[in-house]
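Sharing a chain and its predicted structure for anyone who wants a worked example. Both blocks are below, sequence first, tokens second.
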Amino acid sequence: MDEKTMTKLSLLCSLTGLAAIYAVAMQVRPTMTPIASLDNEFVGLKDGVLAALGL
């Protein structure tokens, strides 16, 4: 095979692989997890970082 044919074959295989991965990803649906309860005592990231810095 010459270089031009190998390049075309490589491109075709890459695009086929990407299409296959995309098709499988479209079939997988993430499950939804319900929120059990809200935690009003939660300290957010901003407060936690400031506390860690001693501010």
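Comments welcome. The mean pLDDT is 77.
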